[in-house]
Write a structure and sequence with these properties.
The complex is a heterotrimer of chains A (98), B (418) and C (973).
Chain A (H helix, E strand, L loop, with lengths): L2 E4 L3 E4 L3 E6 L11 H9 L7 E8 L4 E8 L5 E6 L18
Antiparallel strand pairs in A: 1-2, 3-4, 4-5, 5-6
Chain B lengths: L10 H5 L18 E7 L3 H14 L4 E4 L8 H4 L3 E2 L6 H21 L6 E2 L2 E5 L2 H16 L5 E3 L1 H7 L15 E5 L3 E2 L2 H14 L3 E3 L6 E5 L2 E7 L2 E10 L5 H7 L7 E10 L9 E4 L4 E5 L5 E5 L13 H14 L7 E12 L6 E4 L5 E5 L9 H14 L31
Parallel strand pairs in B: 1-2, 1-12, 2-9, 5-14, 12-19
Antiparallel strand pairs in B: 3-8, 4-8, 5-7, 6-7, 10-11, 11-12, 13-16, 13-17, 14-15, 15-16, 18-19
Helix pairs in contact in B: 2-7, 2-10, 4-10
Chain C lengths: L15 E10 L2 E7 L3 H7 L6 E2 L6 E2 L12 E4 L2 E5 L10 E3 L26 H4 L5 H14 L17 E12 L3 H11 L5 E4 L20 H14 L4 E4 L2 E3 L7 E6 L2 E12 L3 E3 L12 E3 H11 L7 E5 L2 H12 L4 E6 L8 H8 L4 E3 L1 E8 L6 E11 L2 E2 L4 E4 L2 E5 L2 E3 L2 H6 L2 E5 L4 E6 L4 E3 L9 H18 L34 E3 L4 E2 H9 L5 H8 L12 H12 L18 E2 H5 L12 H6 L2 E6 L2 E7 L5 H14 L2 E4 L4 E6 L3 H8 L12 E7 L5 E11 L2 E6 L4 H15 L4 E4 L4 E7 L3 H8 E2 L13 E6 L2 E6 L8 E7 L3 H11 L6 E2 L2 H10 L34 H8 L6 E7 L12 E4 L2 E12 L4 E8 L9 E5 L5 E6 L10 H4 L1
Parallel strand pairs in C: 1-7, 8-9, 8-13, 9-10, 13-27, 15-23, 16-17, 16-23, 17-18, 33-44
Antiparallel strand pairs in C: 1-2, 3-4, 5-6, 5-7, 11-12, 12-13, 14-24, 19-20, 20-21, 20-22, 25-26, 28-29, 31-32, 33-39, 34-37, 34-38, 35-36, 36-37, 39-43, 40-41, 41-42, 42-43, 45-48, 45-50, 46-47, 46-49, 47-48, 49-50
Helix pairs in contact in C: 4-5, 4-10, 6-7, 7-8, 16-21
Classes of the chains: A mainly beta (98), B alpha+beta (418), C alpha+beta (973).
């Protein structure tokens, strides 16, 4: 049973966490054509190596980011999402559609 | 015992002075510098493809490159359940064809794959699960596959060992009963295909990983290995959990996540369980092999990992639920646990056929459902490679179906209770 | 004496001669002592045969006396495959043999050996498939021949008790032999909290029974010293009779003791699990009377049992000579030492054996053990000169004996190290595998780490313990040096394998595999250990290759010319020794969630049903009257007033300046302009445009929305909101208050009258509190959030109160509605009422792929919002032609049966959709439902085909919904 060092709660058994997959920040959907949007949405890197991932400590509902080696399962570091996502994300109003 | 069923084939072994070996795979030769077809991966699907390339299309200049030992990946690790009681018409047609091929496989190979029709029961413990079972039963019946939604009385009659009590956390409300559900010896399937394919001229190279893929002007030309470069007219990858790693060499990505799937067996027991029992709600399944071991598994691990390591929590969760279904097994013991690496797709259907690279074909997205598809996979991928056009049965499983919002939903009916 | 083969004290350190215990074996009464195992008691009483082998049903008996082999598996009551050499006897235990045909003594299965030549390796692959029906006919026979013990089909795990406990240690030491004891002391010196896990009754391991010097005193003196030191340390906790079955990630260790599974987390682990004695391969090496030297020593020292009356010892190391001295001490004559080595070294032990007058036959091996009548015991050994690797010359000698001890080598018991990911290298001078790179926070000590000389073992242990403690953050004093000479050379023979022309020379005892089975398997092309294992089944039996894995590697290396340096044994997987299902299951905690009104439902006679992990009332009344009960509840709501517990529905408090913005982005609809005191539908889609949840958003303040969600969806909805906002950084806070609030919905034309009686602080009139309005007020003195939503299509109020007041609220409303005869109603009635209005149920009427367009919910999609989750995908989906459409329907012929959920909609023979919900509406007296149909049939009035039970086709008619009260007058009054 791996130990995950939650930035908020400290080291906890990994069974207390939910895995959120690779961190892939969403580009503004309006800026992508249909195919590019589909690619971003569905395709995965599924890397065998160090990956930056989302994890959630379920009992406290705390989302954070971990860097983990997906081959050895070694968790290299964990940190709050705010270290990566610093600014408020805004979406531009839609241009007039037909 | 009827004379026709007498094992005459064993007699020569007793009467000969010396054992006459029959090699399943020829001794490994040197790699040639080029082949007609190179297959990356040496598991059941790859071997089946080589077999049908030779048998159905006369293509024998085929090279299988396996990075480990023959069929040592998921083919060696699965729990060997074969069925066609899927949800989508596309899935049902596909797996039903596989079942048809499986039934004749021992005779085709002249090698016993221990194919045993046991009857497959998917237990439903919630209204939503009963609903999904009926959906599958109706689709199956409409397509000529033998499945039926049955209820507790009938379940108790057919599966006398199941705990049908109301006083459990999640009582059994119904089941999808699929009489043709079977088990087989997974390694034997691979060996049969290996022997057949190599007898017809294909080459199997073990301990030979592919380290890069040679592409010129969007067309695959060959592969690099530590034993040298190999050119090929056509290349197929069939590497299950390593799909994304190999596809990356070819320059494209898939909607796949590699997640461990664990399983375990008990110490062998005298036979008592004939059926294959699956519980979607409790996330467990069990069957008893011809060796007497209870073969058990559950759902995939909670997070992705490129490893075949196993865990304690898997056993704890599995057996807790197993004892709810079969409470007489408390004193039975686990003998061994292991894991495979499942290449999971968003819709629980495979990704097969053409890729963005010309003459490069893919067989992937096999998640937790790959072993039963071994024959039909080989058959359809052989056709696809030869014709540069997906076989009818696999057209729905094309790579671009995701970006085209045309998924084939085998995860199908999600269940939520109000 | 409890047995004719007993030795007097001081032999038998683990038995208590003052307590006699009787049990039965195969119906025969056997007497032993407290502390005896089943095997030791049986041998003491002259019952040599303890099991029958898997394939040939050959008699088997004690081999390791340590639970490492599977030659003494017995059935003990409802427990199959029990290790007789580990299981201690209890009064009245009923022990049976396993795997026999007829009787244990006269097992007809043994005739299989007569046709052994017709059963080559993998024989079941070569035949039984000639016709399709062949395997169908043969499989039941093969299945009956396979398997060992029996599952007791009458047993019930619920009648026994197994539990689990967490343990924490700075340093866990696994194995309480000399290395482990030294390690525990080495770790404890620095102040680390140490847990020492040992399989034996008391720590000591081989110190209890092995001979370390010629007079046999060194072992017990050492043990006493170490034990005293350990007892004197407050920070060493000893778990005896405990076995650690695996080493999992981050040093998570399962330890099984009695009825408990301990889950032990250690900062660092010392693996001091010792080594497993390895057999010699020769004809009849499996029969009763052939055992390891250490097994005989355990029998003599621990249990006070004579293993035989005349011994021959096959030797290739000094331990064999120690064993000889033990035999002599126990009064068992040693006919000869048959030593594989041409030159037997002069050591303290060998000299002592010579002095005792025992013949030493150097450069010889045992060619064959002579089987006695029925093969139940050997009667002699044939010793032949070694002429080369695996080859024997002529001039063999017959030696009369009933006991052959094998002492030709060891293999590390490295399973836990393998689990942890240790790499091993083959040591060409010791002829054993040694740990080559051990992962962080794991340390190896003792013979598992190649230390065999006792001094080296103790030094190695102490050092490992010290290093482990330092790794855990504790250290004192200087780092102890590594032992200079491990003493591992000359302990293991590289090729104690002597195949015999007549066979029965076993490499794998579990699977009855003979030498030629492996050779033939390799010749068949399975020429590496992994493939050979799968083809021949070597190493796949209950002992998982403890005695065959290394031999298999040696044989494959020799046959293929591959170097042992480039090979390893097949992957070692947990568990180290078989574990009971019951230990893994423990008490099986299955949480359930109950609402505050749970007991009221039971008191009112509700039939409860699961909704996720919650329990909800399905309907109120007897099971036999289910349909009528549901109809009555529906009628009560439509014509009078009903009350339903909706506490399980999710509730989220969304607060902050960006509350509306968050809702705008999470849901399809628009919320920025939603007025305070108003409710609005929420529909959630995921980023792929698939409908995932729905509910209602109530605006109580500019910066406060109270949002409901489905019972089993709310936790995911909540997590999703937090996940998105971890990226968006909006100024908003979301709290999952589902469990904080209990809720009811009071519905029906009389609901306003009833509620008025207990409601304060709010005007409930239609003008002041219109449909889709909301307010906070007091209901029966309880602070409440009140909403009017389109729930079941009648005038109604949803009331949420703090959960602690839920029962009080229920009681107050039931009392208030007494004169109207207010009816509680459950989930089944709710489903019918909602279906009569055409409300969709997410994940019943939608599935894992349903888009808003397919579900005909374009009305819920805001057109001008810059963004919402799923919006981009919805745009793309909108451009594609629909493949199905969700519609309301009734039946063309109402005499037809009401379809079931998931009956298919067909066009000809093609499946184009399915019914998702259907009911014979009590309010309308006809069938209404929702179904996916082909888009070409998607308009009201169109007819379509439904396939119902028995293959019958009926006709559905697309019908606009709501079916009941289409103008919604009743719910909006």
């Amino acid at each position: 049973m791996k130990v995950m060092n939650c930035p908020l709660n400290g080291p906890r058994n990994i069974s207390e966490f939910a895995w959120g997959g690779e961190v892939k920040p969403m580009p503004d959907p309006a800026s992508l054509d249909d195919h590019a949007w589909g690619d971003w949405l569905f395709l995965e890197n599924n890397e065998a190596g160090v990956v930056r991932e989302w994890w959630c400590h379920v009992p406290t509902s705390f989302w954070f980011i971990a860097e983990r080696n997906t081959v050895t399962d070694e968790i290299l570091k964990t940190y709050p999402a705010g270290e990566l996502f610093k600014d408020r994300v805004n979406f531009a109003a839609k241009a007039e559609k037909k | 015992m009827l004379p026709a069923l007498f094992p005459y084939k064993l007699l020569p072994y007793g009467f000969r002075r010396k054992y006459r070996p029959q090699r399943f795979i020829p001794k490994q030769k040197d790699l040639k510098s080029s082949y007609d077809v190179v297959i990356i991966g040496g598991g059941g699907h790859a071997l089946a493809c080589a077999y049908y390339l030779a048998r159905n299309h006369g293509i024998t200049d085929v090279c299988i490159l396996e990075k480990g030992y023959l069929a040592g990946g998921n083919t060696a690790r699965n729990t060997a359940i074969i069925r066609s009681n899927y949800l989508t018409p596309e899935g049902v047609r596909f797996y039903e064809q596989s079942l048809k091929l499986y039934r004749d496989l021992s005779q085709d190979f002249d090698f016993n794959i221990l194919y045993s029709e046991r009857g497959h029961f998917t237990l439903a413990h919630t209204d939503a699960a009963v609903r999904t079972s009926r959906w599958r039963a109706e689709v199956n019946k409409q397509l000529g596959v033998d499945s039926e939604l049955i209820f507790p009385d009938e379940i108790a009659r057919l599966c006398p060992h199941l705990n049908m009590s109301d006083h459990v956390r999640y009582p059994i409300l119904g089941a999808l009963y699929h009489p043709p559900g079977s088990i087989a010896r997974h390694d034997a399937v691979a060996w049969g295909y290996a022997r057949g394919a190599t007898a017809m001229g294909a080459e199997v190279h073990q301990q030979t990983p592919v380290t890069s893929i040679i592409i010129e002007n969007g067309t695959v030309k060959g592969v690099e290995t530590p034993r040298g470069r190999v050119y090929a007219n056509k290349v197929m990858q069939a590497v299950a959990g390593s799909t994304s790693v190999v596809a990356k060499m070819a320059g494209f990505r898939l909607p796949i996540r590699t997640i461990p799937l664990q399983a375990c067996v008990s110490v062998p027991l005298k036979p008592f369980l004939d059926q294959i029992i699956v519980s979607g709600s409790l996330h467990v399944y069990v069957s008893q092999s011809s060796r007497g071991e209870l073969v058990m598994g559950g759902s995939t691990d909670p997070y992705g990992l490129y490893s075949t390591r196993s865990t304690l929590d898997f056993k704890e969760g599995l057996l807790g639920h197993m004892l709810e279904l079969l409470p007489m097994l408390g004193e039975v013991k686990i003998l061994r646990q292991w894991a495979g690496m499942a290449d999971m797709t968003p819709d629980f259907s495979p990704v097969m056929g053409l890729t963005p690279v010309k003459n490069y074909y893919i067989d992937s997205g096999w998640g937790t459902w790959g072993f039963k598809a071994t024959p039909v996979c080989g058959l359809t991928m052989a056709h696809t490679i030869v014709n540069d056009e997906p076989h009818e049965l696999i057209k729905p499983f094309y790579l671009d179906r995701f970006v085209e919002y045309a998924q084939v939903g085998e995860k199908g009916a999600a269940s939520v209770g109000h | 004496m409890a047995g004719m083969n007993r030795l007097p004290a001081p032999f038998g350190t683990w038995i208590d001669r003052t307590e006699k215990i009787s049990f039965t074996f195969e119906g025969k009464e056997i007497e032993g002592f407290a502390g005896d195992t089943i095997a030791s008691a049986l041998l003491a009483n002259g019952q040599t045969m303890i099991s029958r082998s898997f394939k040939y049903h050959r008699p088997r008996s004690v081999l390791t006396m340590a639970g490492q082999d599977s030659n003494t598996l017995v059935q003990v009551g409802d427990e199959p495959n029990c290790l007789a050499d580990k299981r201690r006897i209890e009064p009245g235990l009923a022990v049976e043999g396993q795997n026999y045909v007829g009787s244990f003594e006269d097992d007809k299965g043994r005739f299989t050996e007569l046709v052994e030549r017709f059963l080559p390796v993998g024989f079941y692959y070569r035949t039984f498939h000639e016709q399709k029906k062949s395997w169908k006919a043969w499989e039941p026979i093969i299945r009956r021949m396979a398997g060992l013990g029996k599952a007791d089909l009458k047993a019930d795990f619920h009648h026994s008790y197994y539990d689990k406990q967490y343990l924490f240690a700075d340093v866990a030491v696994i194995g309480g032999g000399p290395a482990g004891m030294a390690a525990a002391l080495g770790a404890a010196e620095g102040g680390a909290e140490v847990i020492l896990v040992d399989e034996g009754a008391e720590p000591g391991g081989s110190l209890w029974y092995a001979r370390f010097n010629f007079d046999g005193t060194h072992g017990s003196l050492t043990r006493a010293e170490l034990a005293a030191a350990i007892n004197g340390r407050r920070n060493i906790r000893v778990l005896s009779n405990a076995v650690c079955t695996g080493l999992f990630a981050d040093n998570w260790l399962p330890v099984i003791k009695d009825n408990r599974l301990y889950k032990l987390r250690a900062k660092s682990v010392v693996v001091a699990t010792g080594s497993i004695e390895q057999p010699s391969v020769f004809r009849n090496n499996d029969l009763p009377g052939v055992m390891f030297a250490s097994a005989a020593q355990r029998l003599i020292r621990l249990y006070g049992v004579k293993p035989g009356s005349r011994a021959v010892i096959l030797a290739a190391n000094d331990d064999a000579y120690g064993a000889a001295l033990e035999m002599l001490d126990a009064g068992i004559p040693v006919a000869a030492m048959v030593d594989l080595r041409a030159d037997v070294p002069n050591t303290e032990m060998t000299q002592a054996v010579r002095r005792a007058g025992v013949e030493i036959i150097a450069g010889h091996a045992i060619q064959e053990a002579i089987a006695g009548p029925g093969k139940t015991r050997i009667t002699g050994a044939v010793a032949a000169p070694v002429a080369g690797d695996g080859k024997l010359g002529n001039g063999g000698r017959n030696l009369a004996c009933d006991l052959i001890l094998m002492s030709v080598g060891y293999s590390p018991a490295a399973h836990l190290l393998h689990h942890a990911g240790t790499k091993f290298a083959y040591d060409t001078s010791s002829h054993m595998y040694r740990p080559d790179s051990v992962p962080a926070h794991v340390f190896a000590a003792g013979s598992v780490n190649q230390a065999y000389a006792l001094d080296a073992v103790l030094a190695d242990g102490r050092r490992a313990g010290w290093l482990a403690a330092r790794d855990a953050g504790y250290s004192s004093g200087a780092e102890p040096p590594a032992p200079a000479d491990l003493g591992c050379d000359g302990v293991t023979h590289p090729w104690p394998i002597f195949p015999h022309d007549k066979g029965m020379d076993f490499v794998d005892f579990d699977e009855d595999l003979k030498y030629k089975d492996l050779i033939n398997g390799i010749a068949d092309g399975f020429d590496n250990v992994e493939l050979l294992k799968r083809y021949s089944t070597v190493g796949m039996g209950p002992s998982q290759g403890k005695h065959s894995a290394v031999a298999a590697v040696r044989i494959v290396a020799r046959e293929t010319g591959e170097s042992l340096n480039r090979m390893s044994v097949t992957t070692q997987r947990p568990p180290y020794t078989p574990e009971k299902f019951a230990h893994m299951a423990g008490r099986v905690f299955e949480p359930e969630r109950r609402t505050a009104m749970h007991h009221r439902h039971l008191e009112l006679g509700a039939q409860m049903m699961p909704a996720g992990v919650w329990w909800r009332p399905a309907y109120y009344g007897q099971k036999s009257a289910r349909d009528q009960a549901i109809r009555d509840e529906v009628n009560a709501v439509r014509s009078n007033v009903g009350l339903i517990d909706v506490s399980t529905l999710g509730g989220l408090d969304v607060r902050g300046p960006d509350a509306a913005e968050l809702l705008n982005r999470m849901y399809t609809f628009a919320y920025a302009k939603q007025q305070i005191g108003r409710c609005r539908y929420v529909l959630m889609t995921d980023n792929a445009g698939v409908i995932t949840d729905d509910g209602v958003a109530v605006r109580f303040h500019d910066e406060h929305f109270y949002v409901t969600a489905t019972t089993s969806g709310v936790d995911a909805v909540y997590r999703q909101m937090l996940w998105w906002n971890a990226q968006w950084r909006l100024d908003v806070d979301v709290a999952n208050v589902t469990a904080a609030y209990a809720g009811v919905n009071i519905a029906g034309p009389k609901s306003r009258e009833v509620l008025k009686r207990v409601c304060e602080g709010v005007d409930l009139s239609a003008q002041a509190f219109p449909y889709m309005g909301a307010a906070t007020a007091e209901v029966a003195g309880i602070p409440a959030r009140i909403m009017r939503v389109g729930f079941v299509g009648e005038l109604g109020y949803e009331i949420h109160v703090p959960a602690s007041q839920g029962e009080a609220l229920w009681d107050a409303l039931m009392a208030a509605g007494g004169q109207e005869g207010i009816s509680p109603f459950g989930v089944e009635a709710q489903r019918v009422l909602r279906l009569e209005k055409g409300h969709i149920i997410v994940s019943q009427d939608t599935d894992g792929l349903t888009s808003v367009w397919e579900a005909d919910m374009a009305w819920a999609v805001a057109k001008t919002k810059p963004f919402f989750v799923g919006g981009r995908s919805a745009e793309i989906q909108a451009k594609k032609p629909l493949t199905r459409k969700l519609v309301g329907f009734t039946l063309a012929n109402d005499g037809d049966p009401c379809p079931e959920e998931c009956h298919l909609v067909l066009q000809g023979e093609e499946i184009v959709g399915r019914v998702t919900s259907a009911v014979r509406s009590p309010s309308l007296n006809k069938v209404v439902g929702l179904a996916y149909v082909h888009p070409s049939d998607g308009e009201p009035g169109k007819q379509f085909e439904i396939k119902v039970d028995g293959g019958r086709r009926i006709t559905g008619v697309v019908t606009k919904y709501p079916f009941y009260d289409p103008d919604n007058k009743r719910q909006e009054m």
